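Dear H.,

Thanks for agreeing to be a second pair of eyes. The structure we're designing against is below in token form, covering all 219 positions.
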């Protein structure tokens, strides 16, 4: 199976998780981090799902799954240990042309979830097409070491610069060479080393006056 890589915008979209164990709880947190409106269906609930429900962050229904639970949902993730139920969720979702993932069962999914490394707005996805989750985990650990929190700060800064240039009625295409200069002239290394004077000097040289690190990072 060769999968089509895609990043989904699920902000404010209704997503269903069937299963209230540890795997389900992890899927819920990832969905919430992406801004989804999450409903969990499970007779038994473990982990932090009760707390999330008490805080109003998810809708929790402690009962068995019903086919009608899919009504109005954008996607569904099945995380139960009942193989027959997981298959039924997949069949029901397929009839509705709905996105469906069954944890650790790629053959009954129409999408799979990669291993991810997040550094602010930087997201690195690793997929082995379901062939070796162990390798995906190993690569994730290595990438977490390689890509530190400086990448999150770097992207915050670049986003603030872009917004400021746009507010000055610069054409987006005109920014390309400016950002390339910032990248090739070791801005990331300066951020990693917290060398703010060097950062301000580089920003001034490439972008002109009025671009300072601390001010941009506050926007």
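And this is the sequence the design step returned. I haven't edited it by hand at all.
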């Amino acid at each position: 199976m060769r999968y089509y890589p895609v990043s989904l915008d699920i902000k404010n979209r209704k997503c269903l998780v069937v299963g209230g164990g540890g795997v389900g709880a992890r899927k819920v947190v990832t969905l919430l981090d992406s801004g989804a409106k999450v409903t969990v269906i499970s007779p038994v609930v473990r982990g932090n799902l009760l707390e999330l429900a008490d805080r109003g962050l998810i809708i929790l229904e402690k009962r068995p799954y019903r086919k009608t639970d899919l009504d109005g949902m954008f996607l569904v993730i099945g995380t139960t240990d009942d193989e027959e139920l997981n298959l039924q969720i997949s069949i029901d979702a397929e009839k509705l042309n709905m996105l469906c993932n069954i944890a650790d069962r790629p053959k009954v999914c129409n999408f799979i979830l990669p291993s991810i490394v997040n550094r602010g707005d930087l997201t690195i996805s690793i997929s082995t097409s379901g062939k070796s989750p162990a390798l995906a985990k190993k690569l994730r650990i290595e990438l977490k070491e390689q890509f530190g929190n400086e990448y999150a700060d770097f992207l915050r800064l670049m986003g603030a610069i872009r917004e400021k240039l746009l507010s000055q009625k610069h054409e987006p295409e005109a920014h390309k060479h400016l950002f390339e200069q910032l990248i090739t002239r070791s801005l990331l290394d300066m951020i990693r080393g917290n060398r703010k004077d060097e950062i301000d000097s580089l920003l001034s040289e490439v972008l002109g006056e009025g671009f300072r690190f601390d001010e941009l990072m506050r926007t």
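Two observations from my side: The first strand starts at residue 14 and ends at 18. The two ends are 44 Å apart (CA to CA).

Warmly,
E.
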